[in-house]
Specification:
Number of domains: 2
Number of helices: 13
CATH architecture of the largest domain: 3-Layer(aba) Sandwich
Distance between the termini: 14 Å
Largest sheet: 6 strands, parallel
Structural class: alpha/beta
Helix content: 25-40%
Shape: globular
Strand content: 15-25%
Number of strands: 12
CATH topology of the largest domain: Rossmann fold
CATH class of the largest domain: Alpha Beta
Length: 325
Amino acid sequence: MKVLLFSPDTFGYYTKIINVMESKGHSVDWINHIYVKSNFDRVKSRLMPSLTSKLTEKYFINEIDWQGNYELIVVIKGEGLSEFLLDKMKQTFSKAKFVYYSWDSLSNVKGAKGKFKYFDAIKSFDRVDCQHIEHLEYLPLFYSKEYSRKPNSVTDNKYSAAFVGTLHSNRFSDVLGMASLVEKNLNKPAFTFFYYPSKPVFKVLKVINKSFRKVPIEEVSFDKLSAQDVSRVMCDSEVIIDYGHPNQTGLTMRTIETLGINKKLITNNRLVMEEPFYKAENIFVIGEQSEQELAQFLTSPYVPVSNEVYESYAIENWVERLIQC
């Protein structure tokens, strides 16, 4: 099957999706879901889309192979795709099935719901969105092969805890506070990595956003960690810390990757308690459990989930469910 995939390039996840699709015999063309020539363009296209709309439209018209005989068109998030472009694709690729997937809460993706009429199937990682929007199918995120089940050898881990993520809201102070508690209990250093895509925008936010004012610029990286480095750090940590965006209720990729490597998770997302893989021995939910319970949680053994549940979150199964319509 010939597939046209639009998606973010976040941490290279799209390459993993393409690899799985191609391993199943599909031919895939990929296009970034927004127009970006730099990290500054990326931020501008999200915060001020009206300023980049003309460039974005031209970008897609030039990038799309209008002669391509596509059988399936998959849009993940699709922030830059206007209704005009979707309508043009529906007319041009009239025999293709269209699938939409959101790995962000829909409240954070401007205009997403207005585009649903162009798709044969609509899916989301956000359980709450799926409960409130008709025909929106729940499809949680995945772990890929570098996060597949590994032995959980606590004594060999270099770090007590690991956090790798993009800077937003109160994430900096919240993560450092939790990392400090874990360090104290396990007597090992924690690894924290905060990323922001644009240094100039970060400097502006330090002036206008009170959550960013106390974040030292030297504590922020404007270059991403490689996927290999993220995996290495997580596998070398006893616990993974996850702080989701306050406006997002879906489970993060980090949550599912933590399941993949059989590590314990500390998270602020209580909806993880509704997942089949949830075990109180493995997942500490901030706000649901006390600091005293945290100490016991950190020193108790990890309890593996069943193979059936574990495999259901693998990227191969996720891709199969994604392209069904």
